[in-house]
Design goal:
This protein is of the alpha+beta class and about 60 residues long. Helices cover about 25% and strands about 30% of the residues. Strands 1-2-3 form a 3-stranded antiparallel sheet, with helices on one face.
Length: about 60
Amino acid sequence: MFHWVAEPAPTDPAEAGLGQEFPTQADAEAWLSASYEDLADAGVDAVSLCEGDRVVYGPMSLHA
């Protein structure tokens, strides 16, 4: 399962939509595309995509 790790972690990860697990990398990336503004508004600067304990890629900045 894939999931996103935020840096820095928001005060309430559930409120930012973090903590979800996705069956595929494509599903995780689609969620990020739809949610990155909410994450940035929650104070997240960067995210990393993980599969289990393995980092697939990141950290990736949420800022232009």
